[in-house]
């Protein structure tokens, strides 16, 4: 499992922040969107293997749509005016000290 920022907005992979899904989505709606996302990702794989650029473009558009509906891309789902740090290096953000404290705890 990847560490999630204390405010629940991001998880960290290889030192980079990735926006979490909107936690206020009802579970059934969230699961439907995750299923759509996974289907679209499989379509990308198939389209790449076949070399079909039209299907690849359509599948990528489906991924983007699902991620926006999940809240992982597009407008942020929080309402406190904070900007989006998606795909930023955690060391260059306000989460830097928190992330360093995780590493310190692991060393103990």
Descriptive overview:
This protein has two domains: 1-20 and 78-108, no CATH class; 25-71. Helix 1 runs antiparallel to helix 2 (53-70). Helix content is 50%, strand content 7%. With 108 residues, the protein is mostly helical. The two termini are 19 Å apart. It has a two-stranded antiparallel ribbon. It has three helices and two strands, in the order E-E-H-H-H.
Q: How would you characterize the largest beta sheet? A: 2 strands, antiparallel
Rounded Rg: 16 Å
The total domain count is 2
Q: Classify the helix fraction into a percent range.
A: 40-55%
Give a count of the beta strands, DSSP E runs of length 2 or more.
2
Q: How confident overall, as mean pLDDT?
A: 95
Distance between the termini: 19 Å
Query: How many separate helices?
Result: 3
Helix/strand order, N-terminal first:
EEHHH
Report a brief summary of the structure.
This protein is mainly alpha-helical.
Primary descriptors:
7% strand; mainly alpha; 108 residues; two-stranded antiparallel sheet; 3 helices; 2 domains
Topology:
Layout: E1 10-13, E2 16-19, H1 27-50, H2 53-70, H3 96-107
Helix pairs in contact: 1-2
């Amino acid at each position: 499992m990847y560490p999630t920022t204390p405010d629940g907005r991001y998880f960290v992979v290889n030192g980079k922040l990735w926006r979490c899904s909107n936690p206020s989505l009802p579970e059934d709606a969230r699961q439907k969107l995750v299923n759509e996302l996974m289907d679209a990702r499989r379509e990308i794989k198939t389209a790449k293997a076949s070399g079909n650029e039209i299907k690849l473009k359509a599948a990528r558009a489906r991924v983007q749509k699902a991620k926006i509906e999940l809240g992982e891309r597009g407008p942020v789902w929080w309402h406190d005016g904070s900007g989006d740090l998606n795909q930023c290096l955690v060391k260059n953000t306000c989460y830097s000290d928190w992330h360093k404290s995780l590493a310190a705890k692991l060393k103990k």
